[in-house]
Write a structure and sequence with these properties.
Helix content is about 65%, strand content about 0%. The relative contact order is 0.09.
Length: about 260
């Protein structure tokens, strides 16, 4: 969980801006904890990055809340209306008009084009919209911290989609997310696949971690927190991974077992 200062730093805004977003109701303000501090989770980071992106594109703060809550067609229609308005003042607002036009692509507002393309491939292999949305929010967190590394990571992720186990995993997780109940059979199968992939990655020396030369675990912590905040079944999947000897899925580490 993050303090307001770390939240602002991660999302690339000022603490003053965060407090202003709280004041106008654009970003929910968490309750104080037992120590008297307000703590923020991964969902707040994603929301703040989206607010910052729209604000930098010239969208009035009074409209951002409505746009973020809108469905995809309504969002696109709102963008088109703004673009027409800016076209009438093209000489004075040319830069803003170009930024607004970019938002019609949806995900491209806050993600590199390589990631947007990858999300399309997930849809092609049968991942549900909820699964794609979860993946998208995770990439928002990663791209905000390590934008220069995304271009080298995405080709690896695309190549992995040729593995039938990866495809099956995305379909399993999609089925889990789209269900209103806990199907332990699906979670068990997903954990089996993930543990098997982890074993292979470890044997090949390919366990993922922070980029070379960087000691930054915060994005991985936020990815775990984002999963927990998005769906309570994430904790069950994490427990199943631990039973199979692994501490998680975003930051794969073998569990050290104590001798009996």
């Amino acid at each position: 969980m993050l303090t307001i200062g770390r939240l602002a730093s991660y999302a690339g805004v000022t603490v003053r801006a965060v407090r202003h977003y709280h004041q106008i109701g654009l970003l929910p303000e968490p309750e104080r904890d037992a120590s008297g501090y307000r703590r923020y989770g991964a969902t707040a980071v994603v929301a703040l990055i989206k607010i910052r992106t729209l604000a930098e594109a010239g969208v009035p703060l009074s409209r951002i809340g409505t746009m973020l809550a809108a469905d995809a067609p309504s969002f696109a229609a709102a963008i088109d209306r703004i673009d027409r308005h800016l076209s009438e003042e093209i000489q004075r607002l040319e830069t803003s008009r170009k930024q607004i036009a970019q938002l019609t692509a949806g995900d491209s507002a806050s993600l590199p084009p390589e990631v947007v393309s990858y999300l399309g491939l997930l849809r092609d292999i049968g991942a549900s919209e909820r699964m794609v949305q979860a993946e998208r929010d995770g990439w928002i967190l990663i791209a905000a911290r390590w934008p220069e590394h995304v271009r080298t990571w995405i080709p690896v992720k695309v190549a992995q989609l040729n593995d039938e186990r990866i495809v099956r995993l995305y379909r399993l997780l999609s089925e889990v997310l789209d269900s209103d109940h806990v199907d332990d059979r699906l979670l068990q199968e997903a954990a089996d696949i993930m543990a098997g992939l982890a074993e292979e990655a470890e044997a090949a020396g390919e366990i993922e971690g922070p980029p070379d030369g960087e000691d930054d675990e915060l994005p991985f912590d936020l990815l775990d927190a984002l999963a927990d905040e998005s769906d309570p079944r994430a904790q069950r999947l994490r427990d199943l991974m631990r039973e199979r000897g692994w501490s998680g899925w975003n930051r794969m580490e073998r569990v050290t077992r104590s001798p009996h």
